[in-house]
Write a structure and sequence with these properties.
With 486 residues, the protein is an all-alpha fold. It has a domain at 391-484. Helix content is 64%, strand content 1%. The chain has helices spanning 3-18, 22-31, 36-57, 66-83, 86-90, 98-109, 125-140, 142-149, 158-164, 178-203, 207-218, 236-249, 253-262, 267-272, 275-297, 304-319, 336-346, 359-377, 394-420, 425-436, 455-469, 473-476, 481-484; strands at 386-387, 390-391. The protein has a two-stranded antiparallel sheet. Strand 1 (386-387) and strand 2 (390-391) form a beta hairpin. Helix 4 packs across helix 9, helix 18 (359-377) packs across helix 19 (394-420) and helix 19 runs antiparallel to helix 21 (455-469). The protein starts with a helix and ends with a helix. 49% of the residues are buried.
Length: 486
């Protein structure tokens, strides 16, 4: 373990993150909302901390090893979660306790969207902007941005990229150089954000709401500048814009890159030839139909189009793990709220900004299950698991099963730990699902916000958010004896 190298890189990354506090400072000055001192103080603390770490270790210029990459990623997300809480702690509106501030910060950075805040409409503009910006930065990952910057500083980025990038097939690169890969991802991310903000503005939002909601939409985060979320606007066109961009952001960005690079008549077919994309659309479409029929036949909404409007939005929002709301879906009767929570377990596509276990893993588990059933009838048969026309390597299938087993185990332990704090089973189950899947809204006591649960429960859920954001392996590998052996 190269501790000086790790601290040097961590210092550089903190200095880079400190610049993200400049936009909220500018917003505070523009609106004179009284949040300037909190953000300026947070900037100074973050900048000095990073500079001190870098200054003490600046002579240790060595390529980080794979182990170092994992520790850097976990340390950075953890440290960043605490540093990101500073404006919430130092400010006067809101002035949050440390557990609440850390919860809000981690929720933003991990694009979970769970909040402890109420009265969001009355918060300073700088705080509102900052919450949305946290999600936007976390969506693609601060580490991926750093991968594009660190090579210019003489630090290789492949070890960080492998540790940060989600999905079962991590070694595929969009471009020959890792820095070019990171830049390609950010170009697409920026383009989608700008397009989404413009579409929101054209649909009727003011510029502030349009920009801030584009941050959380493309990040699949779910934070809003209003307590009622997207329901505040009560506008079909705004909801359509949100649904379109949530769907786009939930698709593998590598697929976006390949399709946009070609930009010809074959581009639409490239999406529909992708097995994960087809499963992604099929799952959301099926649940949307079921939800619409249920809401209409049970007279929750009198008109079929009205039932479709709310069912489609909540299905896409929950299914992609965004967490926006146009209505309180937890109050829908029957099995529907539970169905939507279960859809979030599948989540969005690998390589997207969404959470959950990822569609590709679900698809591979499904195909492998079918293979095992076939083997019962034909024990000697050699049956490959194929995605499209390509056979999936057995190590990938093994990794998917390992991920699933770890997911179930950690979910169960986290659920039991939450119930020990006094939460009922419905609340505990949905809270763990919402945080591990980086979804946000839950059921029971956490249907509206997480402010009323105990501090202990909040710390447990912060850990669950981090587990979900780093897709379990990256975090849990640090708890193994083998990792710390020389």
């Amino acid at each position: 373990m190269q501790l000086p190298v790790i601290l040097r890189i961590l210092g550089i990354l903190l200095v880079v993150f400190s610049t993200s506090l400049l936009p909220p400072i500018a917003v505070s000055l523009i609106y004179s909302d009284g949040a300037f001192v909190a953000f300026f103080s947070a900037l100074v603390i973050t900048l000095l901390s990073g500079a001190l770490l870098w200054g003490a270790t600046r002579n240790h210029i060595t390529e980080p090893r794979t182990k170092d990459g994992f520790l850097i990623v976990v340390l950075f997300w953890t440290v960043l979660g605490f540093v990101g809480a500073l404006p919430f702690i130092l400010g006067t509106n809101p002035h949050l306790s440390i557990p609440d501030a850390v919860f809000e910060s981690f929720s933003g950075l991990t694009t979970t969207g769970a909040t402890v805040l109420t009265g969001i409409d009355d918060l300073p503009k700088a705080i509102l902007f900052y919450r949305q910006q946290l999600q936007w930065m976390g969506g693609m990952g601060i580490i991926v941005l750093a991968v594009a910057i660190l090579p210019m500083l003489g630090i290789g980025g492949m070890q960080l990229y492998k540790a940060e990038t989600p999905g079962p097939m991590k070694d595929a690169k969009l471009a020959p150089r890792i820095s070019e890969t990171a830049k390609a991802l950010w170009y697409i991310y920026m383009t989608l954000t700008i397009a989404c903000a413009g579409a929101y503005w054209l649909a009727g939002m003011d510029w502030f709401d349009a920009i801030t909601h584009s941050f959380s939409t493309i990040a699949i985060g779910g934070f809003s500048t209003h307590d009622a979320s997207i329901g505040y606007f009560d506008d079909v066109w705004i909801e359509i814009v949100a649904m379109v961009f949530m769907l786009i952001a939930g698709v593998n960005f590598a697929l976006h890159f390949t399709a946009w690079r070609m930009m010809d008549m074959r581009t639409p077919m490239m999406y529909f030839n992708d097995p994960e994309f087809k499963m992604y659309i099929t799952i959301l479409g099926t649940v949307m139909v079921v939800a619409t029929l249920f809401l209409y036949t049970n007279s929750i909404y009198d008109e079929p189009l009205e039932a479709l409007r709310y069912a489609a939005f909540q299905t896409i929002s929950i299914g992609t793990t965004t967490g926006f709301a146009t209505t309180n879906f937890s109050e829908w009767p029957g099995f529907l709220p539970t169905l939507l929570i279960f859809v979030s377990f599948i989540g969005a596509c690998a390589g997207s900004t969404g959470g959950g276990m990822k569609v590709i893993r679900f698809l591979l588990l499904y195909k492998q299950g079918l293979r095992e059933i076939t083997r019962l009838l034909h024990p000697q048969a050699i049956i490959p698991v194929k995605l499209g026309k390509k056979a999936t390597p057995e190590p990938v299938l093994t990794a998917v099963w390992g991920f699933f087993a770890l997911y179930v185990a950690t979910f169960t332990m986290t659920l039991l730990a939450l119930m020990l704090t006094g939460l009922d089973q419905t609340t505990a189950f949905s809270a763990v699902a919402a945080c591990m899947n980086n979804l946000g809204p839950g059921l029971g006591e956490v249907a509206s916000h997480y402010g009323d649960i105990s501090d202990t429960a909040k710390w447990i859920l912060v850990f669950a958010m981090l587990l979900g954001r780093l897709e379990i392996f990256t975090l849990l590998v640090l708890f193994t004896r083998a990792f710390w052996r020389a």
